[in-house]
Amino acid sequence: MTNLLEQMLNKLTGAYCKDPNSNIGKLFQIFSSGLTSVDTTLETISLWRDIDNAAGTTLDKIGQNFGVRREGTSDPIYRLLIKTKVRGMLAGGDVDTIISTTGALFGVDASDIELEELYPAKFRVIVDETNMATEYMEFSAVASAVVKRIAAAGIGCEVVFYIPIGCEVHSGIAVHETATEQYSLGKEI
User: Fold this and answer.
1) Paired sense of beta strands 186-188 and 168-170, if any
2) N or C, which end of the chain has less CB nearby within 10 Å?
């Protein structure tokens, strides 16, 4: 006997038989079975509508609601684009939001992202490619456009990817008593 059927039978007044095998009990079994089926279906729909669980055409429809085109991306990447678009719609265009959204978009820790001011009304977001997974690089052009939309109105934005070369070059000038210039190039690994 299901919990819902048991609750329904317990709500009956004393004038009715509360046995699940009685006529009223059988009627309530049919009714509770239908309600349980509807409840299960509604839970499944709720799970599918959740952006973290949605897949395929359901995810496409969620993306259409927010104006995000799939453009051939996989479900996890498309899900990330939708979430970023929502975050951008709710964002105020401040520096912290831009950095955290860029980190989420490219799968990079926010502390690894640099923000450089170019002019009073323009900035550059610098992302180290070595910290990014290859699937994030596949949609970098689309993601860069999303970062640019997050910036406040009238503010220019560039997204730059770089790969560090792994060595440092030092050069300097030293003036000695003999007035000769000395140049040194050193390599530090």
Assistant:
1) antiparallel
2) C
Answer positive or negative: Cα dihedral of 170, 175, 176, 179. positive
Distance CA 9, CA 28 (A): 8
Residue 122 β-bridge partners? 119, 156
Give me the numbers of helices (H) and strands (E) for the chain, helices first please. 7, 7
Q: What residues contact residue 55 under an 8 Å CB cut-off, 6+ apart?
A: 75
Q: Let me know the angle formed at the C-alpha of 12 by 9 and 14, rounded to the nearest 5 degrees.
A: 120
Residues 6+ apart with CB under 8 A from 57: none
Distance in angstroms (rounded) separating the CA atoms of residues 90 and 78: 19
In angstroms, the CA 83 to CA 89 distance is: 10
Query: How much is the CA Rg of the chain, to the nearest whole Å?
Result: 30
> What are the CB-based long-range contacts (under 8 Å, 24+) for 81-89?
81/105, 81/139, 81/142, 81/143, 81/146, 82/51, 83/51, 84/143, 84/146, 85/146, 87/150, 88/146, 88/149, 88/150
pLDDT digits (tens, 9 = 90+) for 103-153: 877 778 888 888 888 877 888 888 887 777 777 776 677 677 777 777 777
> What value does the mean pLDDT of the chain take?
77
> What is residue 139's predicted lDDT score, i.e. its pLDDT?
67
Residue count (the chain): 189
- CB 41, CB 59: distance < 8 Å: no
